[in-house]
Write a structure and sequence with these properties.
This protein is an alpha+beta fold and 621 residues long. The strands form nine sheets. Strands 12-14-15-13 form a four-stranded mixed beta sheet. A three-stranded antiparallel beta sheet has the order 1-2-3. A hairpin with a 2-residue loop joins strand 8 (313-314) and strand 9 (317-318).
Length: 621
């Protein structure tokens, strides 16, 4: 079919439908009638039927390059619900909308170029079809709705619609206040026009890039929305904010995702509450490989922030192992109390004591602390530890002070801080070094007594045993730590002193050193009896120490009897009433009996007998 004499010239960015409608207008016909005159209905042009396009090229004298440009700015269907638009893939709904938009200033300038037939000169640009284009960058004017039609054949007959709007467009009635295009608008316009992109987004499809700008931007501006702000202005701000981050690359995006997680303040923090439509969008597009880089980055951030368990699926990926725990999830996993787990984790620095993060995000590395967590349920208290290693309270404390046997947990509120395996390992080590003594001679003394006599710490003695400076013996008649003994002479040589001989002052009445007797009373506080004596509540006397001559406090048998006539301690209560000291204390607390104090001074677990006996021996009035 020969070319028609009256035919328009394609304008940059013009769509096929705009060109066809203008072609019909210059020939004084509607697009529908003109399509029939070309032997094809309008619907066949809308569906991009090849024969119809060939006929259009013949009658309009269009070459292959011109047709390619028209199709490129129109968008052609590829597969189900997708279109190729400017060499990029978009969902059809992103390019095809019942509402046709445009820049009234562009259309007015078109009309001014042909005053005699303004409608045939008005061109509908292809970038106006794309949902994510909101502004004409050339005129700094937002796109405005022009008309709406459901059927494509009617919607794309632009000349027919513009005929009714031409007078209003030329009069400026559709003009809106100017808005300077944002960096996002300029980037999108340039990429559509040239395909070039100097930003990190050049590595991603345009649909993926614009979608991510929108979804990320919504999150970035959601806390700064003015009540008077229009949806259009809000979307423009969101697109600009999202582009500001994404254009800078992966590191900026990761930082933004982490900042969003860190900004959560509610007690329970959900992924959807934190990442909103962005999270849902990446879930919706799980099968779209174009979104996988963004999905992977968000997944990394989520797994660095939220405590997912092995087997949980996060954005399409199932975890093979747990990466993060919170105190709550760890407590559930090991089957123990959350508060205990939290105190233990604070003790080892896994979580801060005053963690500002919401409980759901108070995380720590699960693999790093896995073996530590497994120890917690089997931890024991000091009584169980003493029983297991055969030590007294003083001996266990001495081992702890010397660093020979350390509590597994040092948090002051943890009542079961000891690991039995540590104590048993110490016994196994000492057993391997010890020689059996059956029975030991007087030349041997227990480790604790050797420490007290020599002034050397238990740690010093154990170090000397390990370095073979001291022999270690084991009393076969005893069990555990209390059975270990060392030679007195070796201790004296270790301290550089001659062996000491204790000489008792025969002029002293029978009695005992106050420090030794305090231990028998169950009081291990240093100088406790001296404090009580100085305050004038007990009788005693100062005497020279039998070995070194220093002044020490001494109790005669009469002093001891006077003490017991007035005072009682938990240990003496247990011995006298035949009830455990714990039960004694419980009954006294219930009765409101408090420890002895005087003039503002406290003396520990010391009680006056006159208050104790009515409670613990009520029938002996």
């Amino acid at each position: 079919m020969p070319a028609l004499p009256l035919r328009p010239v394609p304008v940059p960015r013009e769509t096929i439908f705009s060109f066809l409608s203008r072609f019909a207008a210059v020939n004084a016909a509607t697009a529908t009638d003109f399509s029939v005159d070309l032997s094809f209905g309008m619907k066949r042009f809308v569906q991009f039927e090849q024969a119809a396009l060939v006929r259009l090229c013949e009658t309009a004298a269009l070459d292959r390059h011109a047709l390619h440009n028209l199709k490129s700015w129109t968008g052609t269907p590829v597969g189900d619900a997708w279109m190729e638009f400017r060499q990029e893939s978009f969902p059809s709904k992103a390019v095809r909308s019942p509402v046709m938009r445009g820049c009234p200033i562009c259309l007015r300038e078109d009309a001014e170029a042909n005053p005699n037939d303004p409608v045939s000169a008005m061109v509908m640009r292809g970038d106006w079809l794309l949902r994510d284009v909101a502004v004409c960058c050339h005129h700094e004017h937002e796109l405005v709705p022009l008309w709406q039609a459901g059927k494509p054949e009617k919607r794309f007959d632009s000349a027919a619609h513009l005929h009714d709007l031409a007078s209003r467009i030329i009069a400026g009635e559709l003009d809106q206040p100017r808005r300077a295009p944002s960096p996002y608008d300029l980037w999108l316009d340039a990429r559509l026009a040239t395909g070039k992109d100097p930003t990190w987004l050049a590595n991603h499809g345009l649909f993926v890039a614009t979608t991510m700008c929108n979804l990320l931007g919504e999150l970035l501006v959601r806390d700064d929305v003015a009540q008077t702000e229009s949806p259009t202005d809000l979307q423009a701000r969101a697109q600009a904010a999202g582009f500001e981050v994404l254009s800078k690359g992966e590191s900026a995006l990761r930082a933004a995702f982490k900042a969003l997680a860190a900004s959560a303040t509610s007690k329970w923090v959900s992924l959807r509450g934190t990442y909103g439509r962005l999270y849902d969008g990446l879930v919706d597009y799980l099968k779209d490989d174009g979104f996988e880089p963004f999905r992977s980055i968000l997944r990394d951030c989520i797994l660095e922030t939220w405590p997912f368990a092995a087997g949980d699926a996060v954005l399409g990926q199932t975890l093979s192992t747990r990466l993060l725990h919170t105190p709550a999830s760890a407590a559930i996993e090991i089957g123990t109390d959350k508060k205990l787990v939290e105190m233990c984790l604070i003790d080892v620095g896994a979580v801060p004591e005053n963690d500002p993060r919401p409980p759901a995000l108070q995380t720590f590395s699960a693999p790093e602390y896995d073996s530590f967590l497994k120890e917690i349920p089997s931890l024991v208290g000091a009584p169980e530890m003493r029983d297991a290693i055969g030590a007294t309270a003083i001996q266990l404390q001495a081992l702890s002070d010397a660093g020979i046997l350390r509590p597994f947990i040092r948090h002051p509120k943890v009542r079961s801080p000891w690991r039995l395996s540590d104590g048993l390992a110490l016994l196994a080590e000492l057993d391997a070094l010890a020689i059996p003594l059956s029975p030991p001679t007087k030349s041997w003394e227990q480790l604790q007594l050797a420490s007290r006599r020599s002034g050397l710490s238990v740690g010093d003695l154990v170090a000397a045993i390990r370095s073979e400076q001291l022999q270690l013996g084991r009393d076969t008649g005893l069990e555990g730590y209390r059975s270990y003994m060392v030679l007195k002479d070796e201790i004296d040589r270790l301290t550089g002193q001659q062996p000491r001989r204790r000489r008792r002052d025969e002029t002293l009445p029978a009695g005992e050193l106050a420090s030794s007797y305090a231990v028998k009373l169950g009081i291990s506080v240093k100088a406790w009896f001296q404090k009580l004596f100085t305050a004038g509540h007990v009788s005693a006397r100062w005497v020279p120490h039998p070995t070194n001559g220093t002044e020490v406090l001494y109790l005669t048998d009469a002093d001891i009897a006077a003490f017991h006539a007035r005072f009682m301690t938990p240990m003496t209560m247990q011995a006298e009433f035949g009830v455990s000291w714990q039960k004694c204390m419980a009954q006294l607390r219930k009765a409101g009996v408090t420890p002895f104090t005087a003039d503002g001074q406290e003396f520990g677990p010391l009680y006056e007998r006159r208050h104790v006996e009515p409670i613990l021996r009520p029938n002996d009035a």
